[in-house]
Amino acid sequence: MGKIAIISQHRFVYDDCKNLWRGDGENRVLLSQCEELPGGGDYRAVALVLWSHIASALASLDKVVIYLGHESARIFVPLAAENDLAPEKLIFVYCDCTKAYVEEVIDRDGYSSAQKICCHCSDRLEVMKGIYQNFLADGSLPS
Q1: CATH number of the CATH domain containing 131
Q2: How many domains does the chain divide into?
Q3: 3-class SS string, the chain
Q4: pLDDT at position 35, please?
Q5: What's the predicted TM-score (pTM) here?
């Protein structure tokens, strides 16, 4: 496939390297994740920092995978719209407990045709990690 970015306010890849390009072959991932919320849980500040890690690469990316929680949906979906990301370039991942709200935000901002992956809350980090590992291994993304 090529190059994707994955953004999550929850850390799901645990190693020494954090927010940078991963993979040295055909398939590369620009990872932007957070382990803790600094500043007493200021979601907007964290989201803007995470977005800044991928902003300069947006035009060269094939897909952008974004984990959306209740708070981060209000931030990341409008950021995607402000950056003119086409719905076909996005994959939104979210938990079933926030499904109604997140899908409302996605639809409101014109992304109803974007790919959506709804998972159980307890599986969300494994789903994100699976997307990351599968893409690096063979370039596959969920369909």
Answers
A1: 3.40.50
A2: 1
A3: CCEEEEEECCCCCCCCCCCCEECCCCCEEEEEECCCCHHHHCHHHHHHHHHHHHHHHHHHCCEEEEEECHHHHHHHHHHHHHCCCCHHHEEEEEEHHHHHHHHHHHHHCCCCCCEEEEECHHHHHHHHHHHHHHHHHHCCCCC
A4: 60
A5: 0.92
